[in-house]
Design brief:
The protein has three helices and no strands. With 118 residues, it is mostly helical. The termini are far apart.
């Protein structure tokens, strides 16, 4: 029996898969770039600490932040490589949550650096 809507659902499924892969690529590239940003700011903070002899926890927090972004990067890469769509969705969701946690921590570090709270 011919179903005119069967072709539509296959097209929608392929479009959703492409959208999910696109989201994984964005998480992958953004988190990789933010690892580099964290390492750059850690280096700058170390220069400030050495010259002013004033310590801060911002570099420690940025190291944790860089680790979160790296975990997000690896998870999104894994989601791109996995064959099962169901597994891809789960791994991508975890990568997304870890990425957002990294962004929240980075915002907190900005407050620490700006107002020299700690």
């Amino acid at each position: 029996m011919f179903n005119p809507f069967a072709h539509r659902s296959l097209a929608d499924s392929a479009e959703n898969a492409a959208l999910e892969a696109d989201l994984c690529i964005h998480i992958f590239t953004a988190s990789a770039a933010l690892v580099g940003v964290c390492l750059t700011v850690i280096g700058l903070l170390r220069v400030v600490v050495v010259t002013t002899k004033v310590g801060t926890v911002a570099d420690d927090l940025l190291a944790v932040d860089a680790t979160l972004f790296m975990i997000s990067c690896v998870l999104s890469y894994y989601a791109l490589r996995v064959r099962s769509m169901r597994r891809m969705h789960r791994v991508e969701r975890v990568a997304d949550v870890v990425f957002l946690l990294g962004l929240l921590l980075m915002t907190g570090v900005c407050g620490v650096v700006t107002w020299a709270i700690l």
